[in-house]
Amino acid sequence: MAFTFQINQDVVFQHDKKLIDQADQYRPEIYHQTILPRHVAELVEDDTKLGGYRCKESSLTIAELNKKGLKRDDTIILDFDDHYVGNFSMKIEATGSPMDAPLYFRIRFAEVPSELVQDSKDYDGWLSKSWIQEEFIHIDVLPTEITLPRRYSFRYVEIKVIDTSPKWQAVFSEFKVVARSSAQCQQLKPIHIEDPVLQKIYDVSVKTLQDCMQDVFEDGPKRDRRLWLGDLRLQALANYMTFDQHTLVKRCLYLFAAMTTQEGKISANLFIQPEYMPDDTFLFDYSLFFISTLYDYIKHHDDSELLQDLYPIAKKQMMLAQEKVNEEGRIILEESYPVFVDWSNEFNKDTSAQAIMIYVTRQMIELASMYQDEDITIYQTLLDNMINYSRDNLFDKEACLFISGDNKEYNISSQAWMVLANVLTKEENKKVMQKTIQKLFPVKGIATPYMYHHIVEALFVAGLQEEAIQLMKAYWGKMISLGADTFWEAFDPDEPDYSPYGNPIMSSFCHAWSCTPAYLIRKYIENR
Amino acid sequence: MAFTFQINQDVVFQHDKKLIDQADQYRPEIYHQTILPRHVAELVEDDTKLGGYRCKESSLTIAELNKKGLKRDDTIILDFDDHYVGNFSMKIEATGSPMDAPLYFRIRFAEVPSELVQDSKDYDGWLSKSWIQEEFIHIDVLPTEITLPRRYSFRYVEIKVIDTSPKWQAVFSEFKVVARSSAQCQQLKPIHIEDPVLQKIYDVSVKTLQDCMQDVFEDGPKRDRRLWLGDLRLQALANYMTFDQHTLVKRCLYLFAAMTTQEGKISANLFIQPEYMPDDTFLFDYSLFFISTLYDYIKHHDDSELLQDLYPIAKKQMMLAQEKVNEEGRIILEESYPVFVDWSNEFNKDTSAQAIMIYVTRQMIELASMYQDEDITIYQTLLDNMINYSRDNLFDKEACLFISGDNKEYNISSQAWMVLANVLTKEENKKVMQKTIQKLFPVKGIATPYMYHHIVEALFVAGLQEEAIQLMKAYWGKMISLGADTFWEAFDPDEPDYSPYGNPIMSSFCHAWSCTPAYLIRKYIENR
User: Fold this and answer.
1) Are residues A170 and A21 in the same domain?
2) Do both A282 and A421 map to the same domain?
3) Candidates A126, A136, A150; nearest CB to B140
4) Domain that holds residue A354
5) Distance from B33 to chain A by nearest Cα, in Å?
6) Are A128 and B163 within 8 A, CB to CB?
7) How many CA atoms lie within 13 A of A290 on its CB side?
8) ipTM of the complex
9) Do residues B132 and B120 lie in contact, with contact meaning Cβ atoms separated by under 8 Å?
10) What is the pLDDT of residues B81-123, one digit of tens each?
C-alpha cells in the first residue's frame, strides 16, 4: 500500500496505554546477517528484463577493487545477488599523492537494475523525492570505514566518485550489508513443490515477506516502511504458512487497537517512529480488515486473551460499518471514508464494498460466537440482509455475473469479492468465475498484486485450480522472468515498465501485499 | 595558496620523531564560541557588491521560522552577520499530518552572497568539486537536533527543502554555529587608527587571520585548510603584531622541519590529518621561506632552543638553494623546482627569484651569526656575489628599473622584491619604486593579495608611505567596499568577479595570505 492520499488533521486519536504495553511485549528481536557482494556488475540493455536493463557480471572482481583507484566520474556497481534490507558498510582509502581535497561521492541503492538508469533529478511526482535511495557524501579524512546510518532496501549498490582531486584516487573495499529482518528463517516450514515455476514463486514470496518483517510488518522496506492494515491481513496469512511468527501479528493488532479515533475508528496505517502514531488516512475496507485479521489469527492460533482484549475494538469497527448499511441490506459509502479495493479508480467499487462487508461480517459472527456476544443475532440478520440484497439486486442471473454501480457495470473485482464472500452456492461461484474468465479476462487495467491475489483466491475458492495457477504464473511468474528477486508493489503484465509514480526509482520492488502466493500455494495447492 | 599543481609521488620523506614531538607540545587549544544567526536574509541584486549580489534582511524573523512549515523547494537563508569557521547545528521538526516520508534537504554554506547564486552542477574546473560547501541530507525521523559533522567556513547558511511530502512540512529552528579558532581574542593588542578605512582594513585582516588559526595556520578554512610555508611566513608576521600566539608559529616551524625529503628539502605544504604528511609539491621560494620564518620568529621572540633545533634544517635549505647560484652570482632554476612569486605566469620571475634568494640570504647570515656557524663567511661571499650580479646585470640604470629574463622585461614583482632585498641604496630604492609607479602602475594582471603585499611593503620600505597606503586602500579597501568580511584568496580590482577557478563556489574568501595589512599597518603606519 502507499498510493492513498488523505489529510484529516483535525481527527483526535486516543492512545490506550494498556494495549500499547501489550504491543510492546511482542516487539520482535531483529536478526542480523552479514552479506558480502557477490560480484561487480555492469548495466547492460536487455529487452526481456524490467525496464530494459539487467546487471551482468563484470570482468573486474570484488578483490580487484582493492587495488583500483577511482577518480572523478568513475563508477562501480556491486551486486549482492539477492534482495536485502539493512545497513551498508565499506572501507575507503586514498591512493596516489596525499589527499589534498575531501572525497565526494554519490551512493545509490537499487532493488532492480533499471533504477540505476534513472537520474533522480528527472523525478517530479507528488510522492516525496526523499524516498529515492541516493546519498551524497563528503569524507574529509581517509582512510576510513563508514557505515551509512540509514537502512536501505536493495540488491545493487552503485558508487560514483563525484571528485577526489587530480592528485589522488579513492579505493573502495570491504563492502558488506548487515541485513535485518525479524523473520526467523530456521522456523520456515519446509516445502517441496514439483512445479519449478511454482517453487520459485513460493521462494520469492517468502523472501518478500521476510524482508518486510521488521519491527512491524512493513508494507515495503524501501517505501513507505509502514504498517498498513490491508497489507497486514495478507502478510499475516502468508506468515502463518511460512515463518508462523504469530506474535508479530499480535503486536500489530494491538497497535491498531490501541490508537483509534475518539469515535473508535481504526486508521488505515500506523507510524512506528519517533513514537507510535496513527495516520490520518481512513479506508472503509482497511478498518474492517481489523476484524478479518483478528479472525484469521484466532483461527490459526487460539488465543482467548487476545480475543478478550481486542473483540471490543473489532466490534466497534463493525458498528461503524453497520451504519453504512441501509434497511435493504445495501451498503452506501461516503467520499470521506472510501473503500480501497484497488488503486485503480477505473471501475465501480460498490459491489466490491458490499462483498467485503459480507466477507467480514461472516468472520465477525464467528468471533461473536467465541466471545459469546449476544449481538451475534444482529450480525446474523445484517448478514442475511446484505446477502439477500446482493442476490436480488446485484447478481445478474442471466449473465451469471454481479453488476456494480448505477451503470450496472460488470467488473472482475465484484465477481472475485462476491465469490470470496460466499454469497452464492458452490456451483454458482464456479459459474461466476467461469463467466468471469470467459467475459472479463484477460485482466486489464489492474496493476496491484493485492487485487490479483483476490482474483486468484476467488478462482481457487470456486474450484478452478488450474485457472488459478495459470493466472498466478502469468502474474507473479512474469515478474520473476523479468528479474524479480522479491515481488513488486505494482505490476501490470501488459505494461511491465509501468510505475504508478512515473519512475522506477520511486517504486517499491519488495512489497508486502505481493507475497501472498506463499499462502495460496500452501493453502490451495500443496495439500491437494 | 592553493593553485600550484605538482605530482612527485616518488619522493621519499623522513619523519623526525623528536621534532614532531616538539610540534605536538605546542598544539594549540581550540576556542569555541557559540554564535546565533542575526537574521533571515534575502538575496538581492546589487551591482556594487561582489558578483552582483548582496543579502538583505528579510521581513521574516528568525523567531518566526519556528512556526513556518517549509515544503518542497522552499528555501531560507540565515545571515550570521560575520564570517565564522565551525560546526552548524539546528533543530528540525515536522508539522501537519504525520511524517509519512523522510525529510530531504540541501544545505549550503557561503562566505559571500554570490556563492548562493551558483549551482554546483555548473562547476567543472580541475580543482576538486568536493570543496563545494553543500550537503544533501535525509532525516528519517523528526523531531531531531542535528549537528553537521563537518566544519564549514561561512557567513550565510541556505537551507532548501528538496521534499517533505504533500502531507507535512519541515520546521527549522535553534540554529547555531560553534565557531572555532585557536586565536585568543583577549590577547589582541589594542590599536587605534585615525583613518576609518585603515581601521576597517585592519579589523578585517585580524578576522581573516583569526579564522585561519586552527590546529595550524591554515591557508583557507574553506579550502584547502592546509599549512603552506609561504602563507605561514605572512601569517606569522601578522600574528606577532596582533594575537602574538608565537607557539603556534613554533609548532608549524617544527612540523616543516620534521618532515623533509631524504635530501633535506622542505615541502611547500603539509597535511595534518589523518597524520602529519608533507605534500609532494616543492617551490624554491617556499622552501627558502623556512629560513625567513625562523628568522622572523627569533627577531620577535628570542628562543635559543628553537634556533638550536631548527638552524640545521634552515642551513640545509640554504645549501640546496646555493647549488642553484652560478659563479657569477646568478640564480638559475630548474622546471622541477620552480619559484612561485605569484600565481600569474604572465611575467618573468628570474629577477624575483634572485631577489628572494638575496632577501633570505641576509636573514640566513643573521641566523648563522647567532648560531655561531663558521659558514657565515660563505653566505657573506654568496650574498655579495648575488648583489653584485644583480646590480651589474639586472639593474637598468637608465630606466632605474630591474630587468628580468632574456627579454629584459620590466615587471613590478622584480622591482618590489629587489627593493625588499635591499640591493640598492635607500635613495635608489625610492627611485626604483617611483619609477615603478610611473612606468608600471597601475598594477595589472595580479590577482593575489600575496603579490600585492610585497608591492605595498616595498613602497613602505622605499619611503613611499602615501603611495603604499593608497595601494592598500585601493586593493584591500575595495574588497571591503565589495562586501568582504574577511579578505580573499584572489582579487583583481580590474575584474572584481574574477575567480581563478571560474566559479565563486570554489574560491576561498577567507585566505591567510591576505591578512597582512594588520602587519603593514602596525609596522609602517601606527608607530610613525
Assistant:
1) no
2) yes
3) A150
4) 17-29+183-526
5) 23
6) yes
7) 36
8) 0.96
9) yes
10) 999 999 999 999 999 999 999 999 999 999 999 999 999 999 9
